[in-house]
Amino acid sequence: MTRSAFVHIVVLLAVILLLLQNTAVYAKPVFNSVNKYDVNGNPCPLHTRTGELCPQMCVSDVSLCPKGFGDDSCSDGQTLCIDGSCSANCGDIPARKNPCGCSFQYPPEQAKDLVPCAAFGDVTIEHYNKDDTSQTIDFCTEKFNVSGSMPLWGEWDGGQEQADDSSIDGRRFWSGNQCPTAPKYRYTYTEPLWIGVFSCVGAEAFVLLLWIVYKFLREMPVRRLRRRDAGFTTTAPANVHGMSTGDDSEKTSLSKDMPDEKKGKASSSASDSDAGNDTGEIYIKGYNNDALGWVGFSSVILTSLGWIVWLGFWIGDYYGTLGEPDSLSHYDSGLLDETFIPIWIFAVTWTVTCCVFLKRIRNFFRIECLPSEGQYVQIERELKELKMATSASKIVALAKLVEEKFVKFIKADVHIATCKIKWIPESQLRYFNYMCTRYVFNEKTKQYGPYLFDMGSTHRQIHTHSSGLTNQEAAARLSLIGPNFISVYVPSYPLAFVLELSNFFYLYQLMIQVIYWYWNYYVIGIIDTCIILLSAVVKVFVRVRGELRVKRMAEHSEVCTILRDGQWQELSTIDLVPGDIFRIVAGMHVPCDAIVLGGNIVVDESSLTGEPLPIRKFPIREDDGVYDKSGAGKINTLFAGTSISQSQEVTTSDGSISEPTGLCLHTGTQTDKGQLVQQILFPQPISFIFDEQLRLVFGILILYAIIVFVLAMVFYQTKPSAAWFYAMFSSSQLISPLIPAALVMGQSVAAGRLRKKKIYCVNLPRIIMAGKVQMFCFDKTGTLTKEGLEFYGGMCAQTTSSSAAAGTGDAQIGTVEFAPFIESFEKLPDKMRMAAATCHAVAEVEGGLMIGNPVDIEMFRTTGCEISKTPMSGALDTITVPDEGPTGHSSYKLDIVKRFEFLHARASMSVAVRDPRDGHVHVFVKGSFEKVKEHLDSATVPSNYLAAANHMARRGGYVLAMGHRDLGDIDVSDMQNWTRDDMENGCELVGFIVFKNMLKEDTPEAIAKLKNGSTRTVMITGDTALTGVFIAKSAGLMSEQATVYLGDLDKSGELYWVDVDKEEPVGQEQIDRVISSVPGDDYELAMTGKAFNRLDDMGLIRQYVLHTRVFARMLPNDKVSCVQLHMERGFTAMCGDGGNDCGALRAAHVGLALSDAEASIVSPFSSSDRSINSCVELLIQGRSALATSFAGYLYLILYGQTMTFLKIFSFYFSNTASSNTWIWIDAFINTIMSICVAYSGPAKKLSKHRPTARILGPQIMTTAGGTVAINFIFLSSAFAWLYKKSWFRCNEFDSSSTDIAKWWLLADNYEASILAFVCLFQFVNNAMVVNFGYYFRRRWYRNYALVFLWAVYVAIISIVLLAKTNWLGCRFRLNCGSKDVLASEFSIHPSFYIEDYNNLIGHNIIPTDSRYQLWGICIGNMCATVLWQLVVALYPVHSWARKKRPLRRLKVKL
User: Burial level of 508, CB count in 10 A (0-12/13-18/19+)?
Assistant: First the structure.
């Protein structure tokens, strides 16, 4: 459809050129000769003309004036002054006011002695012929009894020009409208004003030239070094002791005589971070200040201010605020216009240049040097755009290529920052701060880079730092990495406002407004400027408020206790450095990423991860295990920004006290919180298909504006300066300054509506992406299901006896099998109850709140046991088992002496429990039944182990296996060095404990809504596959009757498939048929994390991903990979509870965290409602926002197109609408209605379709193209109708008789009236056209503000058109006329002021019957565009076309 858009433009231009070519030559319309023939083809009669038609009479002495037009025309005490007015004091009137000078700047000597008589009054001349000068003079001579004949001004000798000393005594001359054209005066440029200007400009040019030469000579050594270094590359960060970057020799490849610093490259932090946050390689240049550079830079600032003052100076001269109007241009308005235009062009050029190179200007006026020697460094970092979706259009690709080339040419594809080099004298250290990170110069590698201290990779290595640092070591580290404080710079509101206005688009708008302010269009200029400034204020307020929120989140400090020199010291958290040991106390905010070394810690991570429940953290073990902060080591790690809920000392097995302490691992931006802050402060640019095509649209509009500009310059037959102003008005109105605002207005409104639904958004552009979501991935537990689990029962293993073969004397053989399922916990065997009471990591915080894994919490609550507030000596936790009464045991305590916490990688945990009743130590293992089986003694595992577990999982049970091992009466200290495998292997099976994870009540309903909205729903869970399949069927992700094939790996690591219901193996051929089947077939795939990774390794996973409904046993990294694979195929959303889903939530196009945090930074969206219906609401609002943004964009495009036709017809007739009409169009219709369009409410439910994201797509082009064509046809028809009216023919507007530079007087004619009426209806109705469409928004009549405004505007225009002459119509110069004409011809006597009309007949009143005909044309135009939108663009025809030629869309089973 982009081709058709270009074809439309080409054809339109061809027609315009054809129609207007004659206009360009003759300044007349093409199809008729103005006022030559009437409607019947008869020659037009001459008109009767009334007004001040008589020329001015100039005399050598006032006594020569006719009676009543000399001094006797003035009151007593007054005389006739040289300007033709009466006054008691005529001495202050300058000679140039004398009309007898005929506006000559230097009139002839004869004219200097002439004085004017009083002006003659209005006269009426029948059959007036403007080209017959003698007719007017003869009539005036007779009318006012002027005796004798008089020559015209300049005919000093009766028609023959004489020398300047010819006598004019006793003579009279006709001047005024009989004056010859005054000669064009030019500046001599010796005027003081221009001497001052040229001096300033020359001084600036001299300073710049001198600086360029001086800079070139000073920088020659650096350029020579750069040329020598052209063949070398490096990406190494600064390597020093303690850094985790490896050996220097492996990181550099440089010649011995060439230091790295000459290339000035550095790289960012190598710590674990999200890909989108990595700053990547940066390029650094060093700069030093220079006195001459200060002079140059100051001159640029002064010159920039000078251009603004200079423009204001000429605007003031135009309106006479600095004296008399046009005084600076020798009182020649034309010369003033010609002066203003080049000044404006130079000012715009200067401003645009400064805007483009804003970040480079200051360093241009510094001397470049080596980064190690500079006072400042300029940092350049490539901006890599994150493409969310791209267009396959070749035209869009070409536009993108051109844009990239241009951006690269002006070097706008890099982020530029200038940082001051700071110096620490004590350590001779040079550094700068960039993106809140300290970059330190390394003398060894001659590079700048952030320091990363390595605490070791194993648990034992980490424990070597448990003694803390000395003050000297801490000071050295503090100088290397900087304070533990993320300083977020937030400009003040005034400064932020100024910086916002330096944006190119604002500058473009404001520079256009300067033209409006200048050329008598100041009312619109003021209104538009207020709108622009108001939008900037709102944007600045929202941005600064958000930055202040980030500042409050990032900048935090408090006092903590730090171990220095072996002593605990009270210091600020700002002083923390990696390697410090600090005490962990309840209530503190964790100041850094730290490793727990001791104590019992409970932490609230909701602000960072969205996890609703506090998390228990455990001291890191002193063994050879590998520490992985984002993996198994997460349970030993405290993250910056979280808060400590509880902190307790623990008595170890040897009787010592384990104090709650932590080892500082990372500080500042090297922490996870710091990296999230960096992501917010320095976001990666995002490109949406919407943005790509918008660039092409702007390119088309700019091309269109240039063409309109050329047409205006060519076809307006007036002074070139006046034509230039017309051209600028016309072209600037094609690209509305409200377009960017309209595109984001829908997002802002949607964000407000989401907030009311308790859905919070921290990234507005993601809202419209939500409108394109095709696949929605869900976590299971806590997302689709309730957070809490309910105990369902248990099934324990037991050994039975059976005799050998009959007749033999063999001994009995024991068989292990499962006992019947028991629903009552009290009836379970003692060993199972003991396991449930101890094999967990539940902790109880103040207030009795239990924290930990929800499964563990439910299991422990079921036991009825209690956690002792103070553990027994040597125990991690002490569990009190309640008294069971007379028939059971009495209360006793169980001590947990060793614990291996739950790991996702192993899907299990284990504890060692000391039973005081017999002194034995028991080991219990709990976890997924698949994983626990790997550690069990096979002799204790029933043959139907997996079948029994799968049976319960298939019924929706959350199945955990319990293993047990009795170590006997051993010394607990002997176990301290045991590994997890040492403790867990060889256990006996106790049995299964089963929980039910119940669906949330609204989950099936929400899933059904999503599927009805053509959104595929997928489950990505860490639970078992069979439980996932059960929940998926119960929730409606798949039908209850669906045949599900589950993929997993066998013991040998081979992939196999099994029918979940029949428990029968399925061949690969059947799976291939499922993959190749149509979406309607009732087959579904499910797979485990193992199968997922195997298929990924084989490169086959992409064939399966869109056919798989349940991904089970997925680790956090697997979830990220799975979401990313879905994103390759379409827009993907992820919903989770914010725990182990953080990575997937951040990776998805749209991430929704069900979190109580109001603005969780874990994902773009968070919902405190914690309902799946939040997903539905998000998509509804996203689709509405996308459709509304497009509607706003489309309205402004239609506004520009309607404005184009209005301008083209104005070019044709050399007229225009009145100033008040323009004000109404621009300030009231366009601005207010574009705002109302954005407030269209969202649809009640999800449609089966998604709104288009293609600005140049078929639907948008159909609406725009059809509406534009219909509007053009009706506008042309209105003029065809007009030319058939007898009251119009012979009363046509003759531009040759009017000075069209006075544009505000060009509306007093029928042509301008018809143009205004038709276009006003079109402007108003365009908003109604884009308001239709109920798939994604409410019905059109539910946008009450827009409908009300539309009705009011239509009523006002109709009243002006149909009613008798009234005040409102006369304000718009429509259906009105001069007062005397209204009185004489229409018997209308208005009481309000009306400026005399500027046409021959003195009015533009349309006859009553013709008004209704014109109104019918306008209403027909409105109906036609509405029908086109409803019938063709939206509903019947569009639906038929969609079925006939469907677009290539992602075909998936919902």
Answer: middle
Contacts for 829 with CB less than 8 Å, ≥ 6 apart = 796, 990, 991
The alpha-helical segments, DSSP class H, found in 332-457 are 333-356, 358-364, 394-409
Between CA 527 and CA 516 the distance in angstroms is: 10
Q: How far apart are CA 909 and CA 857, in angstroms?
A: 15
Residue 675 has a CB neighbour count (10 Å cut-off) of: 20
Beta bridge partners of 1214: none
Structure tokens at 1358: 């109709």
- % the chain with pLDDT above 70: 86
Q: Are 581 and 663 in contact (CB under 8 A)?
A: yes
Tell the residue number behind the tokens 């064009």, with chain if given: 184
> Residue 10 in 3-state DSSP?
helix
Strand, coil or helix: 176: helix
Q: Does the global pTM surpass 0.85?
A: no
Please, what is the Cα angle at 577 between 571 and 582, to 5 degrees? Answer: 55
Three-state DSSP at 661 gives strand
1298 in Cβ contact with 1311 (< 8 Å): no
Rounded CA separation 1194/739 (Å): 9
Strand order across the 775-778 sheet: 759-761, 1165-1167, 1150-1153, 1132-1136, 775-778, 1016-1020, 1108-1112, 1083-1088, 1043-1049, 1055-1059, 1064-1066
1316 exposure class (CB count in 10 Å sphere: 0-12, 13-18, 19+) = buried
C-beta of residue 414 within 8 angstroms of C-beta of residue 378: no
Distance CA 1280, CA 255 (A): 81
Sign of CA dihedral 927, 932, 933, 936: negative
Does the pLDDT of residue 363 top 60, yes or no?
Answer: yes
Question: Which residue's entry shows tokens 């220095």?
Answer: 564
Q: Is 1075 exposed, middle or buried (0-12, 13-18, 19+ CB in 10 A)?
A: middle
CA atoms of 315 and 1056, how far apart (whole Å): 82
Q: Between the CA of residue 543 and those of 497, 681, 688, 718, 1163, what are the distances in Å?
A: 10, 11, 21, 47, 19
Q: What is the pLDDT of residue 1321?
A: 97
**Distance between CA 440 and CA 447 in Å, rounded?**
8
CB 1305 within 8 A of CB 1404: no
Q: If residue 378 lies in a helix (H) or strand (E), which one and from where to where?
A: strand 376-382
- Tell me the mean pLDDT in the region 1075-1102: 85
**760 sits in which H/E element:** strand 759-761
Q: Which residues contact 1069 (CB under 8 A, 6 or more apart)?
A: none
- Write down how long the chain is: 1454
Residues near 133 by Cβ (< 8 Å), separated by ≥ 6?
Answer: 178
Q: Where are the alpha helices (DSSP H) in 1098-1172?
A: 1101-1104, 1116-1129, 1142-1147
**Above 60 in pLDDT, residue 612?**
no
Q: Concatenated DSSP letters for 679-746? A: HHHSPPPEE-HHHHHHHHHHHHHHHHHHHHHHHHHHH--S-HHHHHHHHHHHHHHHS-TTHHHHHHHH
Other C-beta atoms closer than 10 Å to the C-beta of 655 total 8
Residue 420 is predicted with a pLDDT of 93
**495, two tokens:** 């400064």
Pair 1148, 1134: CB distance under 8 Å? yes
**Cα–Cα distance list, 136 to 51, 53, 116, 273 (Å):** 12, 7, 19, 88
Picking from 8-22, 454-468, 611-625, 1379-1393, which range would have the lowest pLDDT averaged per residue?
A: 8-22
Burial of 430 (0-12, 13-18, 19+ CB in 10 A): buried
In whole angstroms, what is the distance from residue 1349 CA to residue 1157 CA? Answer: 40
Residue at token pair 């006329």? 1377
Q: Could you give the angle at the alpha carbon of 378 between the alpha carbons of 373 and 382, nearest 5°?
A: 135
